[in-house]
Request: fold
Amino acid sequence: MTIRTRLAVQFVVLASLTLGVAFVVVYLRAADFRQEEFLGRLHDRGVNAAKLLIQVAEVDDKLLRIMEGNSPVRLPDEEITIFDKNNAELLHLGTTGRHMTIEPALLDSVRSNGSAKRTSGDREMFAFLFNNEADRFVVVTSGRDIYGRSKLRNQARVMVATFLIGLALMFLVGRFYARRALSPLQRLVVDLQGIGASELGKRVKMGEGSDEIAQLAASFNDLLERLQTAFSVQKNFISNASHEMRTPLTAISGQLEVLLLKERSGEEYRTVVRSVVEDMQALNRLSDRLLLMAQAETASAAMTFAPVRMDEVVWAARSEVIRTDPENRVDVMIDEVEEADDITVKGNEALLRSVVVNLVENACKYSSDKRALVSLKGSGAMVRLVVEDQGVGIAPEDRERIFENFFRARNTGGAKGHGIGLSLVKRIVDLHDGEIKVKSALGSGTLFIVRLPKADPA
Reply:
């Protein structure tokens, strides 16, 4: 069963229950009103007969029978019986054969309670106490409410017909409004069916509303955005990894093949092995950076953000850069720090260390004296990290592109690199809601300025 049909059925069930309860209440109230009205007429007929018989001396039982027999307000199958204080019958008006038996217990109940009513089939009886100065009489009247019951039956038939017709109309109206209400969802389904793995750039239409359907469409668009990003990252990672790893792997393979062509001296073997080890180390660093790039692109580290002291990150990065190449020289200067909170940021320590390592390695790599100057200080609500070198600098036309994946400036000379470091730095800084700027001129060195927001005080 479709949602549209299910909604229509649920609407009909709820509406039919409401309408059915309302009709039942109306019918029961109409039935009570009919009974009250008919019992009132029985009471009036009994009072009229009792007054004529008891209070009017000129009227006896024979004359009263004649009068009541010709009365235009006589009820169908009407019977009126009057009893004295000893429960002796004084008068019986009506058919010869009695329709209802009047027992002494009924008369005693009337004398105790003032009135009583009984029903036998479609015949109704009302008995009441009629007080007179001379005696306490009991008047019992009965009859059939032909017209009242007929109107009640007609009312019931009309209600049943109205209820059934109403159910059909409610089902049709319910289906119409359900279809109209779910039409945006149907359009959403059609849009989603048209989006395949190769078409993740498409987006579903959100319409102009702000209801739940529009929110669902927005959620699907967000999901598609994340899926597209994940697929793009995966595709780029595989492509970049295969492209960048091909060079060192080819170099390693070529050196080993050349080595095996003929017998070599021990020194030649050692030379080739050292070269292979260097290529393997370069390959290892490349794989680490590619993995860090994939991690930063998917923002998986955001779930492990915690307070990180940047001075500890800087010193750890300095040790790593010097361990990689003992000829590297890194000078660190920390200014304007009174408390640890002044240089504490909220982030991922491994990614932040990668930022510092990449900037410092580049500074050492492109400086003639392999020296980098790192300064750290707290500045307002931000932590400011500056990495400076006295290297070859960056041409103005290249400064806008240095943060692109695998881009290398034209004046890098023969320095080894893959063009991954700065793009990784930019992505990690953005992930930490920070900013990075570069100042450089050809032949005058380069200055990288990184600003990261401080962590909230504990």
